[in-house]
Amino acid sequence: MSFGYQVLGFGGSGTAASTGNDNGIFGYGYTGPSNTTNLVSNVGVVGTDVTGVGTARGSLAATQYGGDKGIFGYGNFAGSAFLSMTNLVTNVGVVGTDVTGVGTGRQALAACSYGTDKGIFAYGNRSPGVVGMSNLVSNVGVVGTDVTGVGTSREQLAACEYGDDKAIFGYGFSAAVGYSALSNLVSNAGVIATDTAGVGSVKKLLGSCSYGGDKGVFGYGYSDTSGSPANVSMTNLVSNVGVIGTDVTGVGTVRREICATEYGGDKGIFGYGHDNSAVTNITNLISNVGVSSTDVTGVGTARRALAACSYN
After folding, report:
1. What is the pTM of this model?
2. Distance separating alpha carbons of residues 95 and 276, to the nearest angstrom
3. Which end of the chain has a smaller Cβ tally under 10 Å, C or N?
């Protein structure tokens, strides 16, 4: 999900264009819960199930770090145990065993990379309510202690990178504000900014990833704009300066508890989740200009509340 290196060439702003990682990984999630993973190739093809490593869990988050590696972290074991453990992913997509957790155990948080080689976990739920703290991930995959929360505490949100070295958390839910469209920018030093007024339909349980080298996209989820919550497939594009766009008509099966990662250096993929009747393994590709594709036949174990990140 992060930008691993610079390439020659220039974008429309006159700044050097960047590229992201070639491969992605979907992992963990609820089917019981699971620790299964599925690799994504540099052309967006999802692989069959890889035998799980580490504690099976759902409602976790994942991010790229170190320019070419990934990390899964936090989550919930079986409806009662809030976890802070992590599992590192090598630059060839191999998931490591559990690493002792740091920071407050929680579920339904989000994560993304920043500063080109670091990561951040933030927000989430730890019964009896939502939290706003963050935990930074170093460029060697070490998770830091809790950092005091900034912005509205919430859960079931998503996050992605933008602008080469910055990040954005967006949307989510809390009892205090209900369904949200708020966002919070993250600087290239990992500092979270105060709330930015929401754009687009309020929603939760959505996914997000980068695309196009320096932009991002939020998509799918569970929305409540009229008092009748429903799964959606709409997307909202994020510009290279962190501005979220209005709703784009959805493509593919509406579903929630979905996740996303970049692949192929400048494209993205949304996958899995729960439609209106059952968990799925459907995927939808995002082009390097942010256009969503129709459903791709699922591969691997159908599940929900999983996480995804890129590696190289």
Report:
1. 0.94
2. 31
3. C
Spatial separation of the C-alpha atoms in residues 19 and 9, rounded to whole Å = 11
Instruction: Report pLDDT for 38.
Output: 98
User: Of 80, 89, 88, whose CA–CA distance to 107 is shortest?
Assistant: 80
| Residue 187 identity (one-letter amino acid) | S
- Nearest Cα to Cα of residue 24 among 268, 280, 303: 268
String of DSSP letters for 224-254: -SSS--EEEEEEEEE-TTSPBPPPB---S--
Query: How far, in Å, CA of 101 to CA of 91, rounded?
Result: 22
Distance of CA 266 to the CA centre of its chain: 16
**Could you report the per-residue pLDDT of 242-263, keeping only the tens digit for each?**
999 999 999 999 999 999 999 9
What is the C-alpha to C-alpha distance for residues 267 and 182, in angstroms, rounded to an integer?
25
Q: Rounded distance, CA 224 to CA 231, Å?
A: 9
Helix %, strand %, coil % for the chain, to 5?
A: 0, 50, 50
d(CA 121, CA 140): 15
Domains of the chain: 5-311 (2.120.10.80)
pLDDT digits (tens, 9 = 90+) for 274-302: 998 999 999 999 999 999 999 999 899 99
CA–centroid distance for 60 within its chain:
10
Q: Are 251 and 306 in contact (CB under 8 A)?
A: no
